[in-house]
Amino acid sequence: MNNMKKFVPYEKMPDEVKKWKLQASEYRLFKKVDWIVTEKVHGANFCFIVDKQGIQCAKRKEILQPEDDFFGFQILLEKLADQIKQIESLVKQPFERLSIYGELCGGEYPHPDVQADPNVQAVQTGIYYSPTIEFYAGTF
């Protein structure tokens, strides 16, 4: 899959409106539209990229190689590959490539009733989602 099109990094979300660098007219419009707000999952940006050659994975700034060490993403790819291919088959026309952006989370769940997985590294700490690594892509 070396001849995939150039990867475009996913920008970090600005945490203040003034960082959006809006013109006055854009700011007025911004205040007039309805917004959908979802919870921001505390994790690591992740993307599945699908084209006719297969599936690649990426973190925020680059495509991952199969041997890269990024929270055991290889296990997640194996687990979700069939579902990713189903999504791609639903939207492939007229698109040549599909990018599914989301967040990796989990890897630790400190609770006496939940068995820890010693082979998994926590994506983030402080907020706990699952003892295993999960991929969350919101829909609305």
UniProtKB/TrEMBL annotation:
Presence of the UniProt keyword Flavoprotein in the record: no
Domain RNA ligase intervals: 34-109
Pfam families: RNA_ligase
The protein's name: RNA ligase 2
Source organism of the structure: Candidatus Thiomargarita nelsonii
UniProt-listed Gene3D superfamilies: DNA ligase/mRNA capping enzyme
Record-linked InterPro entries: RNA_ligase_dom_REL/Rnl2
Keyword line: Ligase
Protein origin, superkingdom: Bacteria
Keyword Cell membrane: no
One Gene Ontology MF term: ligase activity
